[in-house]
Amino acid sequence: MEKTFLANGSAYITEQIARAVRDGSRTVTVSGRYTVDREIRIPSNFTLVLADCHLRMADGVFCNMFVNEHHGTELGKTVQGTDRNMTIIGKGEAILDGGEYNGLSEKTQLLDGMPPIWKNNLLLFTNVDGFRITGLHCRNQRWWAFNFVYCANGYLGNLDFCSCDVGVDENGVRYHGLKRDKYAEVLVKNSDGIDLRQGCHDIVIENITGFTEDDTVALTALNGRLEQAFSVEGLAPDLAYVTVKNVASSAYCTNVRLLNQGGIPLHDILVDGVTDTSQTSPHMDRGRYAVRVGDTHMYGDRHSTPDETYRITIKNVRGRGRCALDLVGATRDLVFENVEGFDGAEDLSDKRTEIL
Questions:
Q1: Torsions phi, psi of 344, nearest 5?
Q2: What are the backbone angles phi and psi of residue 260, rounded to the nearest 5°?
Q3: Are the beta carbons of 140 and 193 closer than 8 angstroms?
Q4: How many CA atoms lie within 13 Å of 175's alpha carbon, on the beta-carbon side?
Q5: What's the pTM?
Q6: What is the mean pLDDT of residues 287-300?
Q7: What single-letter DSSP state applies at residue 284?
């Protein structure tokens, strides 16, 4: 029998945060099982500990589980409105759960009263300097689990993901276990684990595990609707100085994804230790790439140039999709070593000259 979730978790946790701000402790520990029906705002210089805590998004809601204090405000788009030094620590069984899918997707967003797709992030931080998120298990994210725009000086570690693995066949019958040749049947598409977007820099991501329907870790420097909504005046748009280490996951698309277009620089990136675990996954059959840099598809008004994609090091990669490492587009000072495909995968596909 499934244990009961207490209602009004958002109000309860928000009040605990407010109390800790008032008394000066600026730390809250939450345990138990709660539904979340509106976003929980984390203030600056604050630590939230989730100890044997299961937070589940309420059915039918369109909101994030966690955002920073000034997210979505006009002040939050300025340097003066930067939020600082936020920590979320999971202890024991700490679970962030998307719950039942709400139907909001990249295709349905902004139609028939639907909000933008980023309302389906479990955590969305914008304009944050100094953050640490560790020890969490994320389940059934309705889109990307963790999304960061113009965030700096952060640490993301010891995080585990398990996307929804439900497919729906032509007769409307649901089943578990996604197949590469039946992508149209995937119920919850593009449910990444961690996404760093425009303006993110000086961040370490390490010890990441689990299953994600699309990319497990994505470093994507683009200039779309999301970035324009949360850009910060006066801050550089570069996605730079990021280290990604020890990613062992089953990814329906790519375990670690690097992409920039439209004139947004991506540089000074280290990817060290990526292992495709899909061979024994009950959730999917086979992904595409362990690591991919660039794309032939157009996500901006133009592809990147070598002066925009540079100083990237990729090493110790093992993949079983189409290939372990896929390189597309224009780069300079890109170094890779110890890259291996297995179970029929190629080691390397290098198409960098095709779209120069």
A1: 95, -5
A2: -145, 140
A3: no
A4: 13
A5: 0.97
A6: 93
A7: B
